[in-house]
Structure formats: structure tokens, C-alpha cells
Amino acid sequence: MFTGLVQGLGIIRPLESDRFTLSIPDGHSSPILSDLAIGDSVAVDGVCLTVEEIVSDGFVATASPETLQRTTLSQKIANASYVNLEPSLRVGSKLGGHFVTGHVDGLGCLQEAISTDKAWEITFTAPSSRWQQWENFIQPYLIPKGSVAVNGISLTVAECDAEGTWFKAAVIPHSYSQTNLCYLKNGDLVNIEGDILGKYVAKLLGKQFKSEQSLDEVNLTFLAEHGYL
Description:
This protein is α+β, with helices and mostly antiparallel strands and 229 residues long. The chain is built from six helices and 13 strands.
């Protein structure tokens, strides 16, 4: 379990097959390495990976074929790109973001990033080749003021259309400059994970809708009677 608060950048480079190294770039510091152990979980651009080996400037990990296909990791490995790093949440630690599992739901792409006086307003949408994935696994959990993880970063949905085809987040300058958001260009792919709490609520509501009454009959009274208000 993670919180979506990135604690450093790493550079991902291939070793062989599906193994790769995550190293801290020269001139950067990260608290991750000071307490890292074999078997630990680390979120790499929002993907939960296991530390298999510790090297002088980072660690070695492996990703399954399913993970490589579903996320941007294979692309990042090929380009030796910057990735966001976060160690797993410890019992008693501060929860400054939201609960992030490290299991990516699908891919989005950067539509635009606009700098304002106090923040970066960043809009994401579905890649044309992944619309079905977006519609099934991302769109249902996009709500204004809700939480979403983009490349492992906990963000708040500032705005989204009614159909959930895009969403916008306001990112403070510190978060923008300290994560790989600042390296994104329009059209670049990102890993997206919906809010786990929203997923459970949606599943529970879906079962009640089917067993108790139709969607047309769901109203404020129904939600109050069943403990949702």
C-alpha cells in the first residue's frame, strides 16, 4: 500500500528480459535508499514492484509480461526514462495523499499542461488505442474532488466532463518539479489507478442496484436508507 506521495526520481534501465535497474540520478537525493531491503515493495511510476537486489545507487526489480503490457514501464525501460519512486506505507506513517495499491488500471495521456500563477493545470484523457480500457477501468471512478493516481502521484480531480472522457488536476509547483510530470509532453502516456475506496463502493452499489431495485429508483432516500448519506 502506498500514499501517492513521491519520494524521489529514479532512472530505469534494462538488464535482461524483464529485469531492470532503478538508480538515483546524479545530483539527486532520495530517502528510499537509506532504508531499503530485499523484498521491500516500491511504487515505480505507480506500479508496485519488489526489490530483488540492492546495488550502490539503487535496486533491481522484475516486472511480469502483464505488467509490462498494461503500463508504461516497457516504454520507460527502452528510453532510460525518469520514474517516480515511493516506498510502501508503514503502519503509523502519515497518510498525506490517498490509498494507492500500485495496481495500475490503465493508461492515459497528457492532453495539455498550463502554467498559472499558483499551479499547473494538467489535463489527461484516453489514448485513442486504449479507449475501451479507459471506459471500463478508469472512467467509472472519475468524480470532481475525487482522488486518482497518475504515475503514482496522488492527485485530486479538479474537473472532469460528465462522461468521464477527460479529467483535470491542479498540481502545485513543488509536486510538478519534484516528479516526472515536468518531463511530460502532450500525448505522452501515463499510468492511472482509480481510488480503491471508490471501486469498493461502486461494486457494493452495483450489487444492491441489481438485487433491490432498478437504477431509475435510486434517489437520495434510497442512499440514506442504505447508509451512503
